[in-house]
Design brief:
Layout lengths: L8 H32 L6 H19 L3 H24 L7 H23 L15 E3 L4 E3 H23 L1 H11 L1 H6 L4 H23 L9 H16 L4 H21 L7 H12 L10
Antiparallel strand pairs: 1-2
Helix pairs in contact: 1-5, 1-8, 1-9, 1-10, 2-3, 2-4, 2-8, 2-9, 3-8, 5-6, 9-10, 9-11
């Protein structure tokens, strides 16, 4: 395809695709963080390590147990969510009434421990995870060739994100969760088991990280460092969207992925810092974030 005004459409659409894929992972991970902070007021710095565990569990299941990709999609997120439930129940709950800084430091320590354990057991080199046969190949869209698996990631991520937003914003369960944030004692007076609701909500937010890890395994190298590499970016996205804003996490995650992809085409040198530059500008103009509410 010929260039137009010095722009190569094939290369541009290719970078947009990369941006959409990255944005899909950003949206899933930041959505999990936004749920945990927005509904529970817990800053979960272990989200990246749990994302890494999701990818590793998928690889371990295929390598040693013969569990294929499709079964991994069903099994791994609940398993990672269960680990999150254990972390909340035995580590975070005892300090739940302390300052938010304590939960941040605790989960940061958990992340370092998990990363160190996987580094010790499997080494720092990446592990390959093959794309399932049914999702291999490409589709000719006319203006570009779309790898089927990458299209699948975008579709499934959007469906999960929209479904989660709808459940929290439009259902009775979501109303209970929001009410528990505002007045847990009043909600408990109506017979709602608030501590159990908190634990399950934390587990669900962590399970989203596990799902993102399984989706990422065939694209990125499965390694102990993969969570640490993406976590800082995801936190920046949550801040841009507004801490605790569910819709803001989804829209900002996808939008920042696209902006990052466009930057890689037009000015590659800034692609690694563009999200943080946007964060600085947004915080100067609107400290609560684009979709956040002022305190």
């Amino acid at each position: 395809m010929d260039t137009v005004f010095g722009i190569n459409p094939v290369a541009l659409f290719g970078q947009l695709l990369v941006g959409l894929i990255n944005g899909s992972f950003y949206a899933l991970l930041s959505l999990g963080l936004a749920i945990i902070f927005g509904l529970l007021r817990i800053i979960n710095f272990a989200q990246g390590a749990l994302y890494m565990m999701g990818a590793f569990f998928a690889w371990l299941g295929l390598e040693y147990l013969g569990i294929n990709y499709w079964w991994a999609l069903l099994i791994v997120p609940p398993v990672v969510g269960l680990i999150g439930i254990l972390i909340e129940r035995f580590l975070i709950r005892p300090i739940a009434h302390e300052d938010h800084l304590y939960s941040l430091l605790l989960t940061f320590g958990v992340a370092l421990v998990l990363q160190g354990v996987f580094n010790h057991l499997f080494g720092s080199s990446g592990k390959p995870y093959s794309i399932p046969e049914s999702l291999q190949g490409v589709v000719n869209l006319g203006f570009m060739y779309l790898p089927i698996y990458r299209g699948w990631i975008i579709v499934i991520s959007l469906l999960v994100c929209f479904g989660t937003w709808w459940a929290i914003e439009k259902t009775k369960l979501g109303a209970y969760l929001r009410a528990g944030t505002e007045n847990a004692r009043l909600l408990q007076a109506f017979g709602i088991n608030v501590p159990l609701m908190v634990t399950l909500t934390f587990g669900f937010g962590v399970a989203l990280a596990g799902l993102a890890g399984v989706l990422a395994a065939p694209i990125y190298s499965v390694s102990p460092d993969m969570g640490a590499n993406i976590l800082i970016v995801v936190f920046a996205i949550v801040v841009i969207g507004g801490m605790g804003s569910i819709g803001g996490a989804i829209l900002t995650g996808i939008g920042m992925g696209v902006i990052e992809g466009l930057t890689k085409y037009f000015y590659p040198e800034a692609s690694n810092t563009i999200i943080f530059m946007v964060m600085v500008v947004v915080l100067l103009i609107k400290p609560a974030g684009l979709f956040g509410k002022e305190a």
